Amino acid sequence: MSLQPLQPGKLLGVLTDSGVEFTVIGALAVNVWSSEIRGTGDIDIMVPAGDDANKAALAKALKKLGATQISLDEGGINQGDADHPTLMFQTRFGKLDILYRPDGSAPYRDVKARATSRPVAGRTVQVAGRNDMVRMKTAGGREKDLDDVALMTESEKGDPIQVQLTMKLAEGADLENSTEVVFGRVEMFDEDGEVWVEEDRQLKVRARRAGMSPEHITDWARFLADRLLGMEVLQDAEVEVEIAEPE
Description:
By secondary structure, this protein is of the alpha+beta class. It has helices at residues 8-17, 26-33, 52-64, 108-114, 130-140, 143-153, 175-189, 214-230, and strands spanning 23-25, 42-46, 68-69, 86-91, 94-99, 116-120, 123-127, 161-168, 194-197, 202-209, 240-244. The chain is built from eight helices and eleven strands. The strands form three sheets. It has a five-stranded mixed sheet with strand order 1-2-5-4-3. Strand 6 and strand 7 form a beta hairpin. It is globular, with a radius of gyration of 19 Å. The mean pLDDT is 90.
């Protein structure tokens, strides 16, 4: 599949002219709420679930865009469920990701109610609010997501804050595999983070990060626990969070 350069104004124009109901999320929304502009190779939009009229408008727009869905073999992702999928397309104006319920987000109607109308690439569109974007990015948990949180909240890049988490490993979960899975997530927060399991199957995480407030780090810990519960690593989503701020 040949990759087309991103032309956000033209892509957004086709969506709006086709009558698609959507709210911009992703890097374009981050740029609205930060003092720095981050480059991006795609456009992310959130759309309402269960809206047949909007699905028809979206199908019309995708046809105009000459869109081709990106398969798993081509770098697409398999995320969400039948009602809230994440779909990735290559179009003649660049890559378009369509999300029905991004990680960490409220239902579409709530995100839309808090959205703001802003000019993006020459088109006036609805952009997800700052707090909604911070929650989505915190839940995403990748290094670039957490950097985006710092950009949007204008957090100081001072001394890193240390956090220690305690969670309960699921009965029957393999210790070695579980530790590797958890470290894979923690490494995106802090490449020098530590993960270990104590005798009573208490799963421990110790990590440090600058550019995030204690509140955002606590949110990250809760989203991490929810994700690990879904992966059957944890017994429940309870997580004890201990934060030591720099003196």
